[in-house]
Amino acid sequence: MKTITSRMRTGLALGTAIVLGALAACSQGNGTSTPAALGTPEGTPRDPSGPFAPAPSHLRRLTESQFQHALFDIFGDDVSIGLAPDPDVIVEGAASVGSSVSALSPRGVENLEAIAYDIGKQLTSSDAVKARFASCLTGSIDEACLRSIATKYGRRVWRRELSADEITALVTTGLNAGTMLQSPVQAVRFLVGAMLQHPEFMYRNEIGSPIQGNATQLRYSDAELASRLAFFLWDGPPDETLLDAVKNGEFAQPAGVTAQVDRMIADAKAARGLRAFTDEWLHLRGLQDLSKDTTIYRSFNTEVGPAAREEILLNVKRIVLDKKADLRTLITGRETHVNRKLASLYDVAAPSQTGFGLVTMPADVPRVGLLGTIGFLGANSHPTGSSPTKRGIFIREALLCQKIPLPPANVNTAIPEVTGERKTMRERLIAHQEVSFCAGCHIPIDGVGLALEAFDGVGAFRKTDNGATLDLSGVLDGINFTGSEELAELVARHPDFPRCVAQNAHRLAFGHTTTESEQADLDGLTTSFVSSGHRLDLLLRTIALSDSFRIAATPAAGE
């Protein structure tokens, strides 16, 4: 395998600008426009970012996973929870962005009502759950009991301390329902229903307050900051310890916030936050419904997609939280997690009869890191065959954050069929590139993806394509290479990779794509990430403790 030298890094940086210019040109329907870089790689001169200015705050709806985590954390994991009231809205490939620009639909409001009362029913039907949740519940309607439930669980549900009037309003709802229905159980159920249907449960009330002497910025309250930290690091609500820290004034001092952030990253729930990040960054949601033509791929079934997703999630957790290692080993390492089904597709021995176990991929097969997983290879293929184009686009967009424009509407994107002269995908794509409109886009994309043709549409290793020998040479931003191993090394060492990771983490934390005024903040995060040895856990910590995580711009009039 080639060693990535400083000269090669410089070549990557210069090549990136040229390639991105060609991609910009292809969005105009030809490959002849003057190159114009769409992004500037780390390690090359950047235009001054200018002073940092935060983006406006916005009300964020709970995502599907945050909704479920909230109910489990608050009421116990023995509570049965189905689907969230509404599915996630995906904007720019991210549920975190969609949550900032979407509200519950009318049907979602009805679904939330049904879920809220069902949770109340579960909490008062099982003796074991009832003893934990409402031990004070007796055969009579007890105002003191209702008040204790509203006080204890109200702050968990609304993620802040409730005022006396708010507690009284909840208790009154329960008393009225219990009296009308002649049932102390119904009193509790309606109280729970009122808590869960309140907007401050389904929406993250993180809007900030004006900063004295600064008309353009808002600062989040201690309770709002605790909520932001919890949903960012845990993908769920604040726990009792975090709420107590706010109540006791610990968030008034930086040391108090730092102590809580460090506790949260060390907590088991940090794995949930990491999964949310990985799902968005690597576009794993689609693996749940991965589909292939089983007449071609006979070993494929519906178990493969979810298992392939879990493999990648476990790999990221092991690197980031368990080993606290360099994130680039996700791209270059040979260790991975497999269950029996994945082991059969990878042609390795299953490490255990059930569940997932760690294996090392054999050295005689060029399968390394993320680019060798079925989750990447299978998802970025067609149901009937591989797709160098899809694989190349994923590498450039998801791992390097290089924007790939859509092809012009009038271009025929069909790839020529297999013939005696065109057996391999490379030969067919070269014929496709002869169309002038297609070459500008396909050359920089396919020049990356064709190096992965040693793996078929489901990710199985192969040495030929339709009986023809494979040519696995490629070029990434001006650097020639051969095969998936050298490609993985180039991607991991690419100057755009650390900035792309930082950009995705920033998007998850703030709920929007990084704005121009936030580029200075992103510059600092990227530098910190690289200096830390590319440790993602430290990048997340840096974001959580940053000043920018605590402030927002004052919304414009009418917003």
How are the strands of the largest sheet arranged?
Answer: 3-4-13
Beta-strand residue percentage: 5-15%
Give the total of domains: 2
- Let me know the largest β-sheet: 3 strands, antiparallel
E-strand count? 13
> Helical content, roughly?
40-55%
pLDDT < 50 runs, ≥5 residues: 27-48
Q: Helices and strands: which structural class?
A: mainly alpha
Number of helices: 24
Q: C-alpha Rg, in Å?
A: 26 Å
Q: Give the CA-CA distance, first to last residue.
A: 54 Å
Question: Overall 3D geometry?
Answer: globular
Average pLDDT rating: 88
Write up this protein:
This protein has 559 residues and is mainly α. The protein folds into 2 domains: 142 residues, no CATH class; 330 residues, no CATH class. The chain is 50% helix and 7% strand. The chain has a 3-stranded antiparallel sheet with strand order 3-4-13, with no helix packed on it. A two-stranded antiparallel sheet has the order 1-2. α4 packs antiparallel against α8, α6 runs parallel beside α8 and α13 crosses α14. The longest helix has 21 residues. The protein is globular and about 85 Å long. 44% of the residues are buried. About 4% of the residues have low confidence.
Give a quick set of tags describing it:
7% strand; 24 helices; 559 residues; single chain; 13 strands; 2 domains; three-stranded antiparallel beta sheet; two-stranded antiparallel sheet; mainly alpha; globular
